## 1
Amino acid sequence: MKEGIGHQFQMETKYQREPYSPGAVEGQQKREKLKEKLVDKSWPLPPPDREDGWPLFKAINSRRSVREFRKKPVSLAALSQILWAAQGITLKAGDFSLRTAPSAGALYPIDIYVCAQAVETLNPGLYHFLPAAQALRMRYEGDFSQLLADAALNQDFLAEASLVLVLTAVFERTTWKYGARGFRYLYLDAGHIAQNAALAAVSLGLGSCPVAAFFDDEINALLGVNPARESAVYLLAVGWPR
Ligand SMILES: Cc1cc2nc3c(=O)[nH]c(=O)nc-3n(C[C@H](O)[C@H](O)[C@H](O)COP(=O)(O)O)c2cc1C
C-alpha cells in the first residue's frame, strides 16, 4: 500500500505498551503458545431470521453499554443473528452483494472476527465470519478471552463476555479507490456495523459494549493478521447482562 497521511494517521494513533514491559513480553509468549496451529476449518451458522424480532424503536430505546455479564452461554443461533445484522448479505445487485450496513462504494473493508468464549456448540477460539456463506471459519482453537481483555488495556469485562466481535479494516479494499480519504470511511463503516450488532444483541435479550481502547498490534497478533494491510479498529463484547 502506498503510504500517505491516512496510513500515517493509522500508525500514529495506535495505543502501544512500553516494548519491554512485563505485560508485553508475557502476552507475546502466551499468544504464540496458544496459536501454534492454524485450524482453518469452516462451520455453517443457522440461517438468520430476516423478518421478526423486536420492533426497531424498542431496540434503540433499550440499548445500553453493558459491562457486567452472567456466566451463561449464548446460542449459536443468536451469534448467527448478530453477525447477519452486522454484515449479512441482503441483496445481490449485479456484481455487488449488498449488506445490512452501508459501505462507501459498496467495498466492505471491514471484516469480523469472533472470539467465542461461551457459545453453545462452538469450541472456544478465534473465528472469521464469512458473510457470503453465513459461516464461521475457525482460525485458532483455545481460550483467548483473557489475552483479549489484556490487549484491551486490561478491561477485564471482555473476558467475562460470552463472545467478543473484533472488527478489522482491510485498508486496500477502500484505499485503491479513495486513497488516503478511505481511512475516514473505514471508521464510518465500522460504526454502522457495530451499531447493527448492538441493536441485534439487545433484541435477543443480550447486552453489548463497544470498545476502542486497545493495543492495536496485540489484537492484530492474536488474530494473526498483517497490520500493514489489516488492523483491528473496534471491538464489541456481547453476553447476558447481569
Ligand atoms: C468509539 C467508542 C469507543 C468506546 N470504547 C470503550 C471502551 O474502550 N471501554 C468501555 O468500557 N466503553 C467504551 N465505549 C462505550 C462508551 O463508554 C458508552 O457508549 C458511553 O458511555 C455511552 O453509554 P451507552 O453506550 O450506554 O449509551 C466506547 C464507545 C464508543 C462509541
## 2
Amino acid sequence: MNSLLRLVNRIWGSSIGKKWIVAITGALLVFFLLAHMAGNLLIFQSSEAINEYAYFLHHMLHGWGIWISRIGLLTMFVLHIAATISLTLHNRQARGQQYAYETTVQASKSSRIMIWSGLTVIAFVFFHIFHFTVRLDPELAGMKEVVDGKERHDVHRMVITGFQKPAVVVFYLIGVTLLCSHLSHGIASIFQTIGIRSKGTRDPFKALGWAISIALWIGFLAVPLTSIFGIIETDEQGSAKSAALIEPVADESSI
Ligand code: HEM
C-alpha cells in the first residue's frame, strides 16, 4: 500500500508523469467517444436497434455495468482536467523565470486554445448529461415503451424530439466543433508524450488526429442535423406522414 502511494506521488510529482496521465486518460476518452458515436449511429438503422442498445447498456451486469463505466469515465475526465490544470500552472510559473522565446509563445498560444476548447467541452458535457441522461425535460423523461412485457426508454423518440429546438442544435454544433478542434491537436500530442512521434512520423500522426476528429465531428453532428431537418423522424411522425399520404388518394376515389 505504501509503495503504491509512493508511486502515485512520484507520477503526480513530475511533469512527465502528469503528461502521461493527460495522454492516457485522453486516449481512453477518445475510445469512449468513438464507441458512443458508433452507438448513436444505430438511430439510422431503426428505433428498435437504438432502443435495444440503450436497454442493454442500462442492464448489462445486472445494472452494475453502466455504473462501473460511469465511474471509470468520470475518473478519466477528472484526472485529465486536474493534470492539465496542474501542468498549466507549473508551466506558467516556470515561464515567469525564463526568457520569452518565440517557441514558448507559440506553445502557449496552442495550449491556451486547448484550455478554452476544453472548458467549453466541460460545459457541453454537463448540458448533455442533463439533457439525455438525467432528462430534466419531463416530456423527454416520459418517453417510454413496453416491448415483450419489458418497459424501456424510447431513446429514438427522445433524441429526435430533443433536437427539434434550433437553440439546442446550435449549442451541440458549437460544443461538438470545439470538442473536435480540441481533439485535432490533442490526439497528435498523445503520440508525442508517449515518445513514438519523431520527425518522420510527425505528419502521419497529425493526419491521424485530424482524421479521427473529422470522423467524430461528422458522426456526432449527423444526429442533431438530420433530426432538425426532418431527415429522420420518430416512428409516430412517420406513420402520421404515411396516413397523410394515403388520405388524398382515398378522397379522389370517393369523388
Ligand atoms: C451530438 C450527438 C450525441 C448524441 C445524439 C448523444 C446521445 C446520448 C444519449 C441518448 C445518452 C443517454 C444514454 C442513455 O442513458 O440511454 C448520452 C449520454 C452521454 N453522452 Fe452523449 N450524445 C452525443 C454526443 C456526445 C458527446 C460529443 C459527448 C462527449 C463529449 C457525449 C458524452 C456523453 C456522456 C458522458 C453520457 C452519459 C453516459 C451515462 O452515464 O449514461 N455525448 N448521449
## 3
Amino acid sequence: MTHQGKFYGLGVGPGDPQLITLKAVAILKHIDIVAVPKSRMDRDSVAWEIAKVHCPSDIQLMELEMPMTSDETVLQAAWQKAASQILDALHSGKSVAFLTIGDPSFYSTYTYLLNLLKRELSSEQIETVPGIMAMAAAAAKVNQPLATGDEPLLVLPGIEGVDQYAEIPNLVVMKVSRNLPEVLQNIKENGGKAVLATRVGQAGEKIRELTDQEEMGKVDYLSLVLINRPVK
Ligand SMILES: C[S@@+](CC[C@H](N)C(=O)[O-])C[C@H]1O[C@@H](n2cnc3c(N)ncnc32)[C@H](O)[C@@H]1O
C-alpha cells in the first residue's frame, strides 16, 4: 500500500514574509506540494506572494480556484474540486500544504476545505499551523492595543448592524469593503479613534486614521477597520 501524505493548513500571516512562523517556514522547505487558493485563475495569489520566498524554487504548485461569490452551489463545487485534488495527491504519497492569509482558523476558506478533508483523513494526517492575523498586524503597525485590561474586543465580519455595539470599546471590522459607509457613520456618531488598514505588510499598504467627517468611496477587499472608543 502507498504511504499516504500529510495535509497541512498553513497560516502565512498578513503580508510581510517575515511575519510567518518558523514552523510554517520549516514545512514549506520540505513539503512536496504547495496548494495555492486563487480567487481567479488569472490573478496572483496573495498567500503565494507571501510564502514563495521561503520555498525551494522548484516547488510543485497546485492552484485551486476559490471564487469570491456568495453562490453556495458554486462554492460547494469549488471546495469539492479542491478537496479531491488534494486527496489525490495525498493518496499518491505526497504531502500538501494549503496556504491561507493570516490565520487559518479565522474567516478562512480553509475551514470549508478542512471539513471536507476531515471526512476522508485521520486526525494524524491533518495539521493546522496558526498564523498572525491581519488585525494583529494592523494594531502593531499603529502601535495600538486591540484590547487592554478587562475590556472586551468584538470582531465583526463586515456586516450591517454595527450600531448595536455602541457599548463595546474595541471593535475590529473585517471585510469592511462591504459596509464602510455604515462604519463611517458609526464613527461619526460615537467618536473615538478609528484606523483603516489596507493591505498591511503588502505592496500598496495604506494605513490611516479616520476622522469623524470621513467621506470615502470603495476600499480594497483586503482592508479592515480598528475602532477604540469611549463606552457610553
Ligand atoms: C477572508 S478574511 C481572512 C482573514 C485572515 N484569515 C486573518 O487571519 O486575518 C479576509 C479579510 O481579512 C482582512 N485582511 C486580510 N489580510 C489583510 C491585510 N494584509 N491588511 C488588511 N486587512 C487584511 C480584510 O478585512 C479582508 O477582507
## 4
Amino acid sequence: MRIILSIFFFITCMWSKNIVYSDEVVSLYLSQDDTKVVGRLLPTNSFEILKEQGNKVYVKIQGFVNPKAPFVIYYNNTQRIIVAAFSKNTKLNFSKKDMTKDDKWDRVSLEIWAEKKKFFKNDKEMLSRAKELFVNNCGICHALHKEKEFNANAWPAVFRSMVDRTAIEKKDHWLVIEYLQKNSKDFKAN
Ligand code: HEC
C-alpha cells in the first residue's frame, strides 16, 4: 500500500506544474547570467517555474499582447492590466496560442529568466494585504473611493496621483494597483 502511495505521489509531482505568484515586482533577464534587466513581472500574476539555476529561475508567463506594441503582456484581451512589461525593442520569443473568436489581442506565452525571490503558491494572502493597505491608507482624508468606482484602465493614474500622500511603501505600489484593477468596475477575467 505504501509503495502504491509513493508511486502515486511521485507521478502527481511529475505532472503538477509549479505555478506561483509574487507579491513584489520581479526583474526579468534574457539569459541566466545576464545582469541587464529587460523587463518586470508584476505582482499577483501567476507564472510557472520551469527550472532553477543559481540566483535565477526560468519561468513561463502567459497573457495577451497587442501586436502593435508587443512589449507588454496584459492579463486579459482588452484591458491595460499589466502582467509583464519590457523595455522597447527587446527581442522576445513569444509563442502564440490559438485565439478565440473574441480575442482582440494575441494570446501568448513567454519563457524567460527571472530573479529568484520568495514566491507564493496562491495570491489570497497578498490580495488581502493589498486590500488592507488600500482601506487603511486611502480613507483617511476623505471617504474611501471604492474599488468599483473606477474602471481597470483608470485606476493606475488615480492611484499614482494620491499614493505620495499615503504611507504605502514603494515596493507595494504595484501590488495595490493590480488589486484595484482586478476588483474594478469593469474588470474582465481572462
Ligand atoms: C493626505 C490626504 C489624502 C490621502 C491619504 C488620500 N487622498 Fe485622495 N484626495 C485628497 C484630497 C485633498 C483630494 C481632493 C483633490 C486633490 O487635492 O487632488 C483627494 C481626491 C481624491 C479623489 C478624487 C479625485 C477626482 O478627480 O475626483 C480620489 C479618487 C482619491 N482622492 C483617491 C485616493 C486614493 C485611492 C488614495 C490612496 C492611495 C487617497 N485618495 C489617499 C487627499 C488624500
